[in-house]
Write a structure and sequence with these properties.
Layout: H1 4-10, H2 14-19, E1 37-38, E2 51-52, E3 57-65, E4 80-84, E5 87-89, E6 93-95, E7 102-109, H3 118-132, E8 138-144, E9 148-155, H4 158-164, H5 176-188, E10 197-204, H6 215-225, E11 227-234, H7 245-258, E12 263-265, H8 271-283, E13 286-291, E14 301-308, H9 311-316, E15 318-320, E16 324-326
Parallel strand pairs: 7-8, 7-10, 10-11, 11-12
Antiparallel strand pairs: 1-2, 3-13, 3-15, 4-5, 4-14, 6-13, 8-9, 14-16
Helix pairs in contact: 3-8, 5-6, 6-7
């Protein structure tokens, strides 16, 4: 059952609700160049007008790695096969080693358990933004502790984001799933043009202490937005008995289900290399698109599988991508 609207009302602080209200928008419905069209005489000839069949364009960002975990370049559209609910689909859009636009939410855990060395976090985040953001990209900056705050709405102005990184506000709790839910909802309101990728980069220790949104709600909203989750998980002490491994595993599963990737950081000095790995992963993705099979737009989840057409390559390479989409999502 869809839970998004109800959760969005109560998971945010009043200030954020006033600043950035959540708006549900209908999904974009591009016209398929391959969609069947029924040709008929014109009205002037006493017939009926042409009926155009519309279908949703489904974009799937795919990371391809060899057995050593290195990205594989040079592949073409003909190297891939897409299955929706087990049925092959025609690939109508393809971009290699992707230069397609990015919409990114950078969500920083500002709880006192994580925000201990603000200088290192701000410096690493600033370098990440400067290295990754291009004219066609946009980034939204949030922090989360007791509540979720949107500090800088979507922009590609690096100086504005840098100023926003100086406004992090520490708190006691960690509203982690609230942050992922809201970040995904914000992404769902961005442009849905062909090939655009939606990304949530979240820096956290993995523990949700606010206990408002649930894991399942955060995952569903991310899948509805087509958002890839990239958790950077800060683990100060690996052997710490109080370490929340359950929260870490939940973040890992979020990354796996959405086509993102997770990274562990033990020392805050390693934040910058972790950001660089996120950037590298996004820069080496392929984007494949196909028009969804016609059918009723309901709340069902459609399973998607991407694989290599050549069985030998299928055994040789590992593919990472989101596991599906909701047919009624925008």
């Amino acid at each position: 059952m869809r839970t998004g609207v109800a959760v969005a009302v109560w998971l945010l602080g009043p200030a954020l609700l006033a600043q950035a209200p959540i708006v549900r928008r209908p999904p974009m419905q591009p016209v398929s160049p391959d969609a069947d069209q029924q040709q008929a005489p014109s009205p002037a000839q006493g017939g009926v007008p042409t009926i155009r069949v519309q279908s949703r364009l489904v974009n799937i960002a795919v990371s391809v790695m060899d057995k050593n975990g290195a990205p594989v370049g040079g592949l073409t559209k003909d190297d891939f096969v897409i299955l929706e609910d087990g049925r092959p689909q025609k690939i109508t859009y393809f971009e290699k080693e992707s230069s397609t636009p990015l919409s990114i939410v950078l969500a920083i855990d500002a709880s006192k358990s994580v925000l201990r060395d603000e200088r290192l976090e701000k410096t690493a985040a600033t370098h990440f933004v400067n290295a990754l953001l291009r004219d066609q990209d946009e980034l939204d900056l949030m922090d989360f502790s007791d509540n979720v705050r949107e500090i800088v709405p979507f922009t590609n102005q690096k100086k504005k984001i840098e100023r926003g990184l100086n406004e992090l506000q520490p708190g006691d709790e960690t509203a982690l799933y609230d942050a992922i839910y809201l970040a995904s909802d914000r992404l769902a309101q961005t442009s849905n043009d062909a090939g655009r990728r939606r990304v949530v980069v979240v820096i956290t220790d993995g523990e949700d202490t606010a206990k408002r949104s649930r894991y399942s709600q955060a995952l569903e909203e991310a899948q509805r937005a087509g958002a890839m989750i990239y958790p950077i998980i800060i683990v100060p002490v690996w052997e710490d008995a109080g370490r929340n491994t359950g929260g870490e595993h939940a973040l890992i599963q979020l990354a796996n289900d959405t086509g993102g990737k997770y990274f562990y950081v033990e020392d805050k000095k390693d934040l910058e290399p972790a950001f660089a790995r996120v950037s590298d992963d996004l820069r080496t993705q392929y984007v494949l698109g196909y028009y969804a099979p016609p059918g009723k737009r309901d709340e069902t989840f459609r399973s998607v599988k991407v694989q290599m057409k050549d069985p030998a390559l299928h055994q040789q390479y590992q593919l990472r991508h989101r596991t599906g989409y909701y047919s009624d999502a925008r």
